[in-house]
Amino acid sequence: MDADSTKPGTQSLSRVFTVLEAVRSGCSDLASIGRHVGTGRSTTHRLVSFLVQHSYLRHIDGRGYVLGPALISLGSAALEQMPLTSCARPHIEQLAHETGDSIHLSIREGDNIIYVDKIPGTKGLEMRSRIGLQKPMATTGTGKVQLFDLPEQEWLRLYELARADALANEMTPTGFLEWDVFRAKLAEFRDKGFAIEREENEVGICCVAAPIRDARGKVVAGVSVASSVHYMSEERLGTLVAPVMRCAEAISAELGWCKPV
After folding, report:
1. Residue 8 — pLDDT band, cuts 50, 70, 90?
2. Angle at CA 149, nearest 5°, toward 193 and 162?
3. Which residue among 7, 135, 142, 166 has the highest number of C-beta atoms inside a 10 angstrom radius?
């Protein structure tokens, strides 16, 4: 173990971050936060009080502790400072204008994707997705395209995680695919350079996604057009492939990627 990790200051800092992670994961009272962090009631109370004082947490009657406004400010600043979101924004705005559908931009975060930008569609459709939301890679369009460069063994591992998540839902998404079908479709999508997702992540929602690459040619993000199945016939899904791929290529070019001739 690194000697610095045992210093009191470092330990306190580590606990502060662990408290924030506990609340982010749903712990809302001192007892559950303390169990997550591994601290007694007095230490937990001291840590939580410090975070409340500085607006990183707040207490809401009937709900308990939730993340505070200081984190919203930090999150907004982090998104603004991320090169991907700043250079991608005009391109996804153009894609939203062309299609009228919801546009998602995501990156990989551990074994999930996290939405780092979203433009809602103009058809009055409400989707569960939001900036900051994490979802399994294997059941989301923007996640599928970020699997393209990974070995098949990693496909299977991430698929199994997505399967466990899907089965844990009150209602398994109607489009969820068994492994053999998923593997075959993903290999086909990889060869074509885009992915289609039909109700695998959210009932009633379909999307077309394409990978975003950096200067080294590595897939670093995904962009998608998503809408209700009522607006996503097979024919329309096909017409969306070209604009989504153009958008992804334009963002990739901003990151230094050169399309092979």
Report:
1. low
2. 95
3. 142
